[in-house]
Amino acid sequence: MSPHGHHHDPDEEEQARRLSELQRRSEGLKDEEGFLHDKYNLLRYLRGYDWDVDTAFLKLKATLEWRQEIRPWEADCKYCEERPGFHSWRQVGIDKLGRPVVYSSFVQAARHFTGEDNVQHTLFLMENAKKCMKPEEYKWVWVLDCSGLSLSACSPHLARAVNHVVAEHYPERMGLIIGINHGIFFEGIWRGFKLFVHPRTANKLRLCRGSHVDETFRELFPEDLRVWLHREIELNAQRHVSQAQIQFWRKPEDSGAHDPRGSPSYVSQYIDRYYKDVVLAETNDNETVKETRIHRPHPNIMQALRAEVIDKESASTTETD
Fold it and tell me: Could you list the residue ranges that cross the membrane (predicted)?
C-alpha cells in the first residue's frame, strides 16, 4: 500500500474536492460492472493511499483492469469444492455496525495451504461479503481462532500472497481482525509480517485473551452472534473435536443443537434465503435470482443445500415406487 508513515486526513471540504477530482479522472475508464458508480469505492482508494489522487487513480485503474481479467465476482473456490472443508474461513454473521463477520479455525481446515488456494478462497469470501454490506459501511471483521495453528499455516509467503491481493484490489475493506487462542508462536510470526504491511493495516489486529474476548464480543456483536461465537470457539478447542464441527457446512440433525454454519440470524437471512431463492428455484425450474447478485455462503454449505434437495427427491421417488 502507500509508503509507511503517519498521515492525517484532510478536512471534509478537501476530501470532497479530491473525490471530485478522482471521479473526473476516472470517467473514461472501462467499467463493465459499474464499479465506479459507487462513490465509496473511490473513497476507499483515496483513504487507502493517504488521499493522494495520483496514486489512487493509478491503483483504481489497475484494479478495474484486474477485475475485467479475473472477474472475481464470479469466483468460486475449487479447493473447497473438490475437498470439502479445505478452508474453514466463512461468513457467520453481521456486527452491530452492519459489517460482515467472518470466522476461521485451523482445527476445521486443511493442514497444508498454498498462496494460490488462499487467494482463491479470499476472493470468494470478499466478493460475497460485499453483498451483505451497506454502501457506506464497506468494511468487514475477521474472528481468527488460532486453535490448531500449525507451522505450515504460518508461512509468510501465504500471508504475503493474500495481503498483496487485498492491499492492491480491496483497500480499506478490512475493518478489524480479532485474534483469539493465540500463543507466543503466532505473536512472533505477526511481528515479522507487520514489516510488510501498512501500519494502518497492522493496527487493525486486536489480540484478545481471557475476559477481554467477551468484552470485545459484547462491544461489537449482537447477542445471537456473541453467543454463537463463544460456543463455536469452545467446541473447536476440545481435545477431540466432533465430526459435526469438522463438517461445519452441514446443518445439524437436532434442531436445538449448535449450528456451525453460522449464527441464527445469518442462517435465516442468508443461508435459508440462498436455499429458497436459488437452490429450490433451480429444482423447480423457476426463474432464479441471478446468483452473482445474492450472497453465497461457504462453497460446501451450498453443496450441502443442493445435496439435501437431491436426497429429498430420491426419498420421494422411492416412496412413490
Answer: none
